[in-house]
Amino acid sequence: MTFYNEEIGFLYLEDGTLIKGKGFGAKGIRAGEIVFTTAMNGYPDSLTDPSYRGQILVFTHPLIGNYGIPEIRTVNGILTNFESEVIQVEGVVVAEHTEPFKWNSAMTLDSWLKKEGVPGLQDVDTRALVKKVRTFGVMMGVLASGIDFDDVNVKKYLEKKYDEIDFTQYTSPKAPIIHQGNSEDTIVVVDCGIKHGILYQLYQRGFTIVRVPCNYSINKIMDFDPKGIVFGNGPGNPNLLKDLAQNFKEVTEYKLPILGICLGHQIATIALGGKVKKMKFGHRAVNKPVIDTTSNRCYITTHNHGYGILSKEDLPPNTKLWFYNPDDGTVEGWIHEKLPIITTQFHPEARPGPWDVTWVFDKFKKMVVKNA
What are the phi and psi torsion angles at 313 (to 5°)? Predict the structure, then answer.
């Protein structure tokens, strides 16, 4: 049975479009960049992905909430069924919010949003909304649940643009966090908002993981005597993170194995002289194809990014194309020709999504063992 919270609500876009619906979740007003995902499942993972910080997420699948929200599970401090400890999105837009029917459901999506203070909007033609975003590109919006449009000065919520804010200040830890593994090999994860799915894949390979704040200096990083370094995912505009790019450049002087994922892939590109640009509406899904140029194989992968290397001409010097997206030619990964550095724009841990490319973590482990 589908139920509706009869609250009023609306979504106002910066181009003047007003979309009225029915609020659910927490009462309130939030502003953010309007983005969409075509994933049919994994909404608990998506909503807790720190890469969505500062964004209002539209789900294209018509029924969201079917299997509810489970209890949190952890292994050595690493979440195994969420990507972070809190909901990261500014707001949620769905066509229809549904009651859960699953054995391990601990609460409804509606209850979870209320608990976390995040507003939602349902009874929306999400297909029309997504077509608009695909046609005109991502834009800022204001979402309200339980509040009438006539009672809100929406303009004041649109004064700051998504591209102008460093969201890593909200998603990066304030101090190092250690996850002890069963190996003597320690790797440092530069944590700008790392997904726990990435941490879990690294932990499964025996590494002791030291997560350091996004703004940690190279000297503090090297104090941990790492055998390898991971620059992980995170939110926002990578071109704002000049200090992080400088840190990456300095790390390369130690010739340690480096894995860059998503934001880390972008930072690596900028640090070494490549170009990262804003995409029209980005890639956010669990079914995006990428071609591995070393084998000519196609893999189905998970994505969440609004910036990218839009062509191989924007690659940094001394790197070669590793993966590309056959749909639009976006660079999805590169390999450095002189240094032990590999990157992927997609999420190789695939949570949610297919497990086609978890072998990327095996490749990184081999690089660490070889370099040790």
Answer: -65, -20
- Catalytic residue, chosen from 265, 305, 336, 347, is 347
Distance CA 18, CA 144 (A): 11
- Encode pLDDT of 213-272 as tens digits: 999 999 999 999 999 999 999 999 999 999 999 999 999 999 999 999 999 999 999 999
Confidence bin at 6 (pLDDT 50/70/90): low
Residue with tokens 């069963």: 182
Residue 317: half-sphere exposure toward Cβ, Cα within 13 Å: 2
β-strand pairing of 186-191 with 78-79: unpaired
Question: Does one domain contain both 133 and 208?
Answer: no
Across 146-185, where does the E strand assignment appear?
177-179
CATH code of the domain covering residue 303:
3.40.50.880
Distinct helix (H) and strand (E) counts, the chain: 9, 23
pLDDT in tens, 348-368: 998 888 999 999 999 999 999
Nearest-angstrom CA–CA distance, 188 and 143: 38
User: Both 202 and 188 in a single domain?
Assistant: yes
Catalytic: 347?
yes
In the set 90, 262, 305, 332, the catalytic residue is: 262
- Binding-site sequence positions: 51, 234, 236, 263, 266, 304, 306-307
Instruction: Among 164, 186, 219, identify where a domain stops.
Output: 164
Nearest Cα neighbor of 360 from 372, 371, 350 is 350
Contacts with 151 (C-beta within 8 Å, 6 or more apart), sequence order: none
What is the rounded distance in angstroms from the CA atom of residue 2 to the CA atom of residue 5? 10
Question: Helix H segments across the chain?
Answer: 43-47, 109-116, 126-136, 168-171, 196-204, 218-222, 242-251, 263-271, 359-371
Output the known binding site for L-glutamine: 51, 234, 236, 263, 266, 304, 306-307
C-beta neighbour count of 125 within 10 angstroms: 11
Known active-site residue 262: yes
Residues 112 and 219 in one domain: no
